[in-house]
Design a protein that fits this description.
single chain; 506 residues; alpha+beta; 11 strands; coiled coil
Length: 506
């Protein structure tokens, strides 16, 4: 059982230690096991695409990389990771599998080997680069599994491989040197040699493309960034315009006409004097002929704010805002009613949408339950069909074994029949000679004058003689069936001889 096993198609499954579900790698590989009893074994994986094995990239797994190797029989339902529907067909449609689990030593990884001076794995998007990255993920994982049909490799071979891996740490130096010569990459690729890739050989950097784009982006600062921090937003220069300025601008056309009226009517005509002293009045109220209204910031002016004397025109100004406020109140009331009506309509629409959403969710729930029941039924049927398929495979295997056994038995029967024919021919010749001897004996006895009562004695002696002769010639190689046939034939001949002798003696 020494040497390389045939290449077999396998699927791989990467495992994690942090509790995540195992990941099924949707890539067909070929596995070859090199077993050299009783001390060495190693495993090699190569990618397979379009039915052709690409041996330009190899994942070599050595016993000194492994902490544990285990072989286990399973079915497709026992595969823990989610796998594509066509995975079983791509492995030949077998329902019974063998799971070969490789658990790597801490800090160790399998070897990724490519031809010496090869650069194809560095080309972006190439098949070699993709295979290298898949092998890198397997080599860096703590453990991974290999799945293949159960009948591809014998159970005895797998048990021997497991035993060799367990005993490899106790290998002596001579066997270890011989093993290292066998797995040397320089012996690969028809003598051209290969090289073992390091992580830096197939990685662009220490981080992925997304991380590299994030780390290489320059930091945004206040000088060249497109956005600024909230605290650094520039404020407008100077204080904001006061309410009085805006109000003065808003009422300027209307106040201009009133100012003309004020310039005609003197404040001394029948009106009470203002509540200010003379100095404040003289300082705050200019002459009517020179009065102008300016937009000034009253908050910025020094000193206390001065009250203006109430005039008759001021009362008119107070009446206009009152009418405007009433109109504004009516507008607000109408707007409120309109908004309330819109809100009621929106609430009705929301209720309708919620009701439709509830009905839709209920319908989806029923559909989902029906689909789950259908899936459960299909799974049950699938399990039953797989069980029947397995039984049919076992029956076919048993019939094949029976056919081989029957062919062997038929060949043995042919040989036995040929030998029996030869023995029968030899004994037939001997029986012919015995009949002639009996005739000579009868003629001799007749010639010596045996008569009367001697005929009975002659018959008895003749029977004993024939029986002894038959027993003597039937010893040795004749089987029981042949002995019976010969006895019957001899007895028949003796009966004929006895009848002839009796008739002669009479």
């Amino acid at each position: 059982m020494a040497g390389h096993t045939p290449k077999i198609d396998v699927f791989t499954e990467r495992e994690y230690q942090d509790g995540r579900q195992a990941e099924f790698i949707n890539q067909l590989f070929t596995l070859r096991i090199a077993y050299h009893p009783p001390t060495s074994v190693y495993f090699r994986l190569s990618p397979k695409a379009d039915g052709v094995c690409d041996a330009s990239v190899i994942l070599q797994i050595l016993p000194d990389h492994l902490a544990l190797l285990r072989s286990q029989l399973c079915r497709w339902d026992d595969v823990r990771s989610s796998h594509p529907d066509d995975a079983r067909q791509r492995l030949g449609g077998a329902s019974d599998l063998t799971r070969l689990r490789f658990q790597l030593l801490s800090g160790m990884s399998a070897q990724i080997i490519v031809p010496k001076d090869s650069t194809g794995f560095k080309t972006s998007g190439s098949a070699a680069r993709r295979a290298v990255h898949l092998f890198a993920s397997l080599a860096a994982s703590p453990s991974f599994c290999v799945y293949f049909p159960r009948n591809k490799l014998s159970k005895l071979l797998l048990e021997q491989c497991v035993r060799v891996v367990d005993q490899f740490p106790r290998l002596n130096e001579d066997d270890l040197r011989g093993f290292q010569r066998k797995v040397d990459p320089k012996r690969l690729y028809d003598g051209r040699g290969g090289m073992v890739l390091a992580p830096d050989d197939y990685k662009d950097g220490s981080c992925t493309d997304g991380e590299r784009s994030r780390t290489t982006t320059p930091a945004t600062n206040d000088s060249n960034g497109s956005t600024l921090d909230f605290d650094s937003v520039p404020r407008s220069e100077g204080p904001p315009p006061s309410y009085g300025d805006c109000l003065a601008e808003a009422v300027k056309p209307r106040a201009t006409s009133d100012d003309k009226a004020n310039s005609v009517e003197s404040p001394s005509v029948g009106h009470a004097p203002p509540e200010y002293d003379g100095t404040e009045l003289q300082r705050s109220v200019p002459k009517p002929s020179k009065r102008r209204r300016h937009c000034v910031n009253e908050d910025a002016l020094p000193g206390p704010r001065l009250k203006k004397a109430p005039t008759r025109n001021a009362q008119c100004l107070d009446a206009k805002p009152r009418l405007e406020s009433e109109d504004a109140g009516m507008d607000v009331h109408m707007m409120f009613r309109e908004l309330t009506s819109r809100l009621d309509d929106q609430q009705q629409q929301i209720k309708q949408l919620l009701r439709e959403q509830s009905e839709l969710q209920l319908r989806h729930k029923h559909q989902l339950k029906a689909l789950q029941d259908e899936i459960k039924k299909l799974r049950t049927q699938n399990v039953e069909l797989e069980r029947r398929n397995s039984e049919m495979e076992n029956i076919c295997a048993e019939l094949t074994n029976r056919q081989e056994t029957a062919d062997e038995e038929m060949e043995s029967i042919r040989l036995d029949t040929s030998e029996l024919q030869e023995v029968t021919g030899e004994h037939g010749k001997q029986l012919a000679d015995s009949s002639e001897l009996a005739e000579e004996l009868a003629s001799f006895m007749w010639a010596d004058g045996f008569q009367g009562s001697m005929s009975k004695s002659l018959e008895e002696h003749m029977d004993a003689f024939v029986k002894e002769y038959v027993d003597r010639i039937c010893e040795g190689d004749l089987v029981k069936s042949l002995r019976e046939q010969v006895q019957k034939k001899v007895v028949g001949l003796v009966e004929v001889l006895k009848a002839q002798m009796c008739e002669t003696l009479k």
